[in-house]
Design a protein that fits this description.
- By secondary structure, the chain is of the alpha+beta class.
- Helix content is about 25%, strand content about 25%.
- The chain has helices at about 5-25, 80-90, 110-115, 130-145, and strands at about 40-45, 50-55, 65, 70-75, 95-100, 120-125, 155-160, 165-170, 185-190, 190-195.
- The strands form 2 sheets. It has a 6-stranded mixed sheet, covered by helices on one side. A 4-stranded antiparallel sheet has the order 7-8-9-10, with no helix packed on it.
- Helix 3 links the parallel strand 5 and strand 6.
- The N and C termini lie far apart (about 70 Å).
Length: about 200
């Protein structure tokens, strides 16, 4: 006769696969939040298709958004990863970006993108930083006779009829430059994507 402990062990072994099956049925990943690097997310609305590609730049972010003739890049990884992003854009056949966004004041890799790909509009925070990365981006903009703009917070920027870009922050100027990072929302049909930097906590003395 099996002991009580042996019976309990058998019951546990039978329950584990059942629990796993139930979890698999209930789990539904949220689009845009749990996405592997380099694996594009494609969403559809109004008979069209929008693709969001998360470029693998290691530590850091770089996101390419495409819909019809519209192309937008949000960040380009760290400074040394700029050429990886440029190579990715060329592989995708992208010769022009409608919008290039650097979410924080000294976003890395943007200078490589500006120097190698035609860009219509560059959005950067108003805050400035005395870093080499920031100066590299300024130099790249000067070399192509461009000036970075601060987007209007809360305004809708509409492209390809139903691609809506909103900049939700910063809502005020902070002393810490990185707290002035841009918060970007992309809306397409019922789908929403959000890019936001984590604010640094201010120390109380």
């Amino acid at each position: 006769m099996p002991t009580k402990k042996q019976k309990q062990a058998v019951i546990r072994q039978l329950l584990i696969p059942i629990i796993l099956i139930i979890a698999a049925l209930l789990y539904q990943p949220v689009k845009g939040l749990f996405v592997s690097k380099e694996k594009p997310v494609e969403t559809k609305a109004d008979g069209g298709s929008l693709t969001v590609s998360y470029i693998d730049v290691g530590q850091g972010d770089a996101t390419l958004i495409q819909k019809g003739n519209f192309s937008m890049l949000i960040d380009a990884g760290k400074n040394e990863k700029g050429q990886i992003v440029v190579s990715y854009l060329k592989k995708k056949g992208i010769k022009k970006l409608n919008i290039l966004v650097g979410t924080h004041p000294d976003s890395g890799g943007l200078d490589d993108v500006i120097n190698n790909v035609q860009v219509d509009t560059v959005y950067l925070p108003e805050a400035k930083k005395q870093t080499k990365t920031y100066r590299d981006v300024e130099s790249a903009l000067k070399s192509v006779n461009k000036t970075a703009q601060m987007p209007e917070i809360g305004k809708e920027y509409r492209f390809e009829k139903n691609v809506v870009i909103r900049f939700l922050g910063p809502l005020k100027n902070y002393k810490e430059a990185n707290n002035n990072s841009l918060v970007v929302q992309l809306a397409y049909g019922k789908n929403r994507f959000l890019w936001a930097m984590r604010k640094k906590k201010q120390k109380r003395i």
